[in-house]
Amino acid sequence: MNAAKELHVIFGTGPVGITLAEELLAKGKQVRLVNRSGKGQVPAGAELLAGDASKLETVVDLSRGAAVIYNCTHAPYHLWPEVLPRLQENMIEGAASAGAKLVVIDTLYPYGETHGRPMTEATPYMATSRKGRMRGQLTWGYLQAHRVGKVRVSIGRAADFFGPYVLNSALGQYVFPAMLSGQPAMTLGNIDLPHSYSYMPDIARGLILLGEREEAPGQVWLLPVVPAVTTREMLQLIGKEIGQSPQILNVPSIEQAKEFGVFDETFAKEYVELFYQYTEPQIVDSSAFEQTFGLHATPLSKAIKATVDWYRTHTTA
C-alpha cells in the first residue's frame, strides 16, 4: 500500500477528530471520519460515514483496511460507566481485526490532585474521583491489550483544550467570543494558579506521531504543551491579541457556576468531583514526548492568534 494513501479512521467528529482529519489530509493520508449521524461539517477530502461505535460489528466493518484507528469518541459524564467500557472494547477489537494501530486521546483525570507537582508519565494514579479512577482502569485495559499482543496501542493525554473548533472548554466559548464582543470572559476557580492548556493542533499532531512512530505503542504520553502560565496571564495574552484589556467574570465554585447557568444540574453533579483542577495548579510536563518525537508545542502568541482568527470568522460560536 502507498504509505501516502494509508487509510486513517477517526471515530468522533468533535474538535479532536476534525483537527486530526485536517492534519492527516495535509500529510496526504486517506481519512475516514465516523459519527452516529453521518452528518456534520468535515474537512474537504475526508470521508464521513454514519456508525454507532457502541456496536462491535459497525466498528469492525468501518475499520477494515485501516493503518491507524483513532478513538476520539466522547460521552456525557453521567453515561461514562455504561458507554466508555463498551467503546474501549470495540476499538480494541476493531483495530485488532484490521491489524491497525490504535491511538487514544485521554484526560489528566487519573492523576487526581497533584497539589502543584508537575504531571509526567511517571506520575502515579491517585484519583479521588470516580471518573479519574475509571479512566485509570480504562488505561490499564488498553495497555493490557498491547501487552498480550492483541493490538498496538498508544495513549495521548492532553490538558484543557483551546484553539479552533474548541467551544466546550474552560478556555472556549465563554472566553474568546465574550472578549471579541467586549464582554467579560468567564473563568473558573483560582485564575492566578499555573494551568496548562493544550492547543488543539498540537494535540492532533501529537496523536499522528503516536500512530506513526514505533517508539509510541504500549505507553501513555503527555502531549506537547508550553510551560504553564496562569489563566489570568492567558487572558492578558488574548487581550493583547485582540487589542483590549480583559474584563473577567470569575466563577469560583460549582454552586456559582450553576447560578450563572454555566453548568446545568446534571453536569454540575458529575463535575463537582473534578473541580479541583481549578483550585490547585495544573502543570503538565511534556518533555518526554518532546525529546522522543521532536515535536514542541506551538508558542502561545501564535496559538492565541490562530484561535482568535478562527473565532472571528465563526461568530455564531
What does this structure look like?
Residues 12-216 form the NAD-dependent epimerase/dehydratase domain. InterPro entries: Epimerase_deHydtase, NAD(P)-bd_dom_sf. This is NAD-dependent epimerase/dehydratase family protein. This protein is 38% helix and 17% strand. Helix 1 (15-26) links the parallel strand 1 (7-11) and strand 2 (30-35). The chain starts with 6 loop residues before the first strand and ends in a 5-residue tail after the last helix. It has a domain at 3-160 and 197-225 and 283-297: Rossmann fold (3-Layer(aba) Sandwich). The chain has a 7-stranded parallel beta sheet with strand order 3-2-1-4-5-6-11, with helices on both faces. Strands 7-10 form a two-stranded parallel sheet. Strands 8-13 form a two-stranded parallel sheet. Helix 1 (15-26) crosses helix 6 (200-212) and helix 7 packs across helix 11. It is an alpha/beta fold.
CATH class of the domain at 3-160 and 197-225 and 283-297: Alpha Beta
**What overall form do the CA principal axes indicate?**
globular
CATH architecture tag of the domain at 3-160 and 197-225 and 283-297 = 3-Layer(aba) Sandwich
Sequence of secondary-structure elements? EHEEHEHEHEEHEEEHEEHEHHHH
| Strand arrangement in the largest pleated sheet | 3-2-1-4-5-6-11
Q: In this structure, how is the largest beta sheet organized?
A: 7 strands, parallel
Low-pLDDT runs: none
Query: What fold name goes in the CATH topology slot of the domain at 3-160 and 197-225 and 283-297?
Result: Rossmann fold
Percent helix: 25-40%
Structural class per helix/strand content? alpha/beta
The beta-strand count equals: 13
Beta-strand share of residues: 15-25%
Distance between the termini: 40 Å
Please identify the oligomeric state. Answer: single chain
Number of helices: 11
Report the mean per-residue pLDDT as an integer: 95
What would you give as the CATH superfamily of the domain at 3-160 and 197-225 and 283-297? Answer: NAD(P)-binding Rossmann-like Domain
Based on CA atoms alone, the radius of gyration comes out at: 19 Å
